[in-house]
Amino acid sequence: MLKDSQVMAVLPAKDIDRAREFYRDKLGLEPSQTIEGDNLIYQCGNGTAFLLYQTDNAGTAKNTQMGWGVTDVEKEVEELRGRGVVFEDYDMPGLKTENGIATMEGMGQGAWFLDSEGNILNISSMPV
């Protein structure tokens, strides 16, 4: 059933225009489709996509909401920082970042940042 179907992440945005600017200016992404004026679909690699929709509930989750699998986390962090993305620092059991990047035993590297709406996003060298 679902195991062979594509998955689409869904992210909330309090201010859809501010979010659109963040995703364009900081992450280099443009929506591939606009639905009903304030729902934006972004296409990413390998047929994946995410929907950004307007709601007052944005920024309330305290967990990673979406992540990209990349081949070189350090390179991506450097490039995104150059575009103004600020990476989170963590120091807790099982997860400690150095210069915004965590190296996790058997799982590669990962780095986390917030979008303009307070959603926690991730890039990692592990498959997502």
From TrEMBL:
Q: Which Gene3D superfamilies match?
A: 2,3-Dihydroxybiphenyl 1,2-Dioxygenase, domain 1
InterPro entries reported for this sequence: Glyas_Bleomycin-R_OHBP_Dase, Glyas_Fos-R_dOase_dom, VOC_core
Residues in VOC domain copies? 5-126
Q: Which residue ranges traverse the bilayer? A: none
- One MF term in the entry's GO annotations: dioxygenase activity
Task: Report which superkingdom the organism of origin falls in.
Answer: Bacteria
> What Pfam family is a match, any one?
Glyoxalase
Q: What is this protein called?
A: Glyoxalase/bleomycin resistance protein/dioxygenase
